[in-house]
Write a structure and sequence with these properties.
Layout lengths: L1 H20 L9 E5 L7 E6 L9 E7 L12 E5 L4 E11 L4 E10 L3 E9 L5 E8 L5 E11 L5 E12 L4 E7 L9 E9 L14
Antiparallel strand pairs: 1-2, 2-4, 3-5, 5-6, 7-8, 8-11, 9-10, 9-12
């Protein structure tokens, strides 16, 4: 009789625990990203769109960028600079006010949004670099700033020049010409690169409530 009572007590206790806690519903984690070339051509901005169960809210998000670094400010919108092109698995961990977390990883292809396809140096007067630049992202680039540097045969930088390309649509290619700001017959070679760009990137995210 004692053994039957003990077994009955264990069974009832198990039922009570199950009914009290039930299944844990984790936050629904999601995020998007967009290149941000105002201070670096491999800068990317990430946006959290994470939500949780009704009557609760996300209190903290943490970003892991797949390059050995992670965010420390727990912001739902974060800017990250990658050091080189490539494919990275970015992970977002979102925690709500219950202390319950959810996790999502996505594959992010990192490359310069504005890409110089070809270019040539023309000597004489004026000295200039001509070529073609392409928008390789899915958003419009309102401005792309290209900078050319001009050198003599010994590698001494003599002068430079810049040009701004406006409203470059996704996949669009545009011809450009960058003239040396100061003429010199000593100019022997040049380099040209994307200095910066802006992007029409939607900034929609789940705000973190202030404590």
């Amino acid at each position: 009789m004692k053994r039957i009572l003990v077994l009955l007590l264990i069974t009832v206790t198990g039922l009570v625990v199950t009914s009290c806690f039930g299944p844990v519903v984790r936050p629904t984690v999601d995020f998007t990203w967009c290149p941000d070339g105002e201070s670096g051509i491999l800068n990317y901005r990430f946006f959290s769109h994470s939500t949780t169960v009704p009557n609760h809210y996300i209190t903290r998000v943490q970003w892991q960028f797949g390059d050995g670094t992670s965010s420390t400010d727990y912001s739902p919108s974060v800017l990250h600079r990658f050091t080189e092109e490539g494919t990275y698995f970015v992970t977002l961990i979102a925690t709500d006010d219950r202390g319950v977390s959810g996790t999502l990883s996505k594959e992010v292809h990192v490359q310069p949004a504005a890409f110089i396809r070809t270019w040539n140096l023309t000597l004489g007067f004026p000295v200039q670099v001509t070529g073609e630049v392409e928008n390789r992202c899915d958003e419009t680039l309102p401005t792309v700033i290209l900078k050319a540097k001009f050198y003599d045969a010994d590698g001494l930088r003599l002068t430079d020049g810049t040009v701004v390309i406006n409203d470059l649509e996704p996949g669009e290619r545009a011809a450009f010409s960058v003239k040396a700001s100061q003429y010199s017959s000593r100019i022997f070679y040049a380099t040209v690169a994307v200095e910066s760009f802006t992007v029409d990137c939607p900034e929609i995210f789940q705000p973190v409530p202030k404590k």
